[in-house]
């Protein structure tokens, strides 16, 4: 059974259909692996009872030859900022430590409709504000690569670090993360798995506790591109409950057979601005190697320019914190979230609840965002950042006139050691870790064309 957990979704579906293995055996082996790797702190909550019940329902469907999809009976992990019915959804925070939603996020709902089994809720940076999964109230997640002990380990990346570890260790076949500036792609890179940030609006945000509404995108982590596509096909498409959802009907993606696939004539762009002075020699070498491989297979690789990339981090930092200030206002200890015992007055209750309910990172972003939104600063910071965001978006529009895809690094370095990572502030680390990923979230309005192959 251990080998079954390490294979891909289509192979497992075939084995389940042929009754070579059972959903119950798959789930029990996955739960065993969760315990085996518990030192890596991938989970905030393991939904063992729920997973076993899901496996039993799946078995009945297979017995009746009525499986719902190729995900039926397969364990999936969901980041702890997606609402899960009657299962705690904490955002790794004191503020939502006891929050149990009465409904499922659309992503969770669609996975369950496809027969997928929720294995648990994965660890993350508090309210998804981070790039290392080190700021959770449940402790940091620990990368499996180069792991020595609980004090000597590499970071898993963030903020979806728990999801990436769950996939990398084979606890599940895929996991759901969220991506605001790189929070799915970053940990996927550091943990050696595939991370996909779909186009904004392609996957519903309904039930995703927001960080930055205009940039948040549910993401997919899996061990292969094929598995990523299987999960994306299950969760993508219009959702009337999400006002930002794309209304164009979603046509399921079909990957071409590898034997018949050709890269001849594919136009690949390499943005010169992504060559940062902080780019490590190892990452630079791999970047060049991949470009050479594509060229050897017939692709046309050329340099392109995206001149506003250098302004992207500053622009992102301003807009991110402005939206954070707005989104976090709901957590006041009265309507939502942790309530302090200090109730001498409404003002003291608000202040005390927010002080204890949020960590320093969240409080700093709230304060900074409110500063940017002051009347005297609104035009100088917020409006100017919106104008720069348009320029960044235009860079992408312009580059698509000449190339079909962009080839860039995901992160500037390999996964740093935890002790080195925490020497810098959250703000500095996010600026460094998200350099190559967050421009795509800033340019959220470009189109993607889907074609059946």
UniProtKB/TrEMBL annotation:
Residues annotated as domain Amidase: 26-445
Compartments it resides in: Mitochondrion
Species per Swiss-Prot/TrEMBL record: Dendroctonus ponderosae
Catalytically driven reaction(s): L-glutamyl-tRNA(Gln) + L-glutamine + ATP + H2O = L-glutaminyl-tRNA(Gln) + L-glutamate + ADP + phosphate + H(+)
Superkingdom field: Eukaryota
InterPro entries: Amidase, Amidase_dom, AS_sf, GatA
GO-annotated biological processes: glutaminyl-tRNAGln biosynthesis via transamidation; mitochondrial translation
Predominant subcellular localization, coarse grouping: mitochondrion
Protein's recorded name: Glutamyl-tRNA(Gln) amidotransferase subunit A, mitochondrial
Residue positions of the active site: 79, 159, 183
Record's keyword annotation contains Nucleotide-binding: yes
Keywords, sorted A to Z: ATP-binding, Ligase, Mitochondrion, Nucleotide-binding, Protein biosynthesis
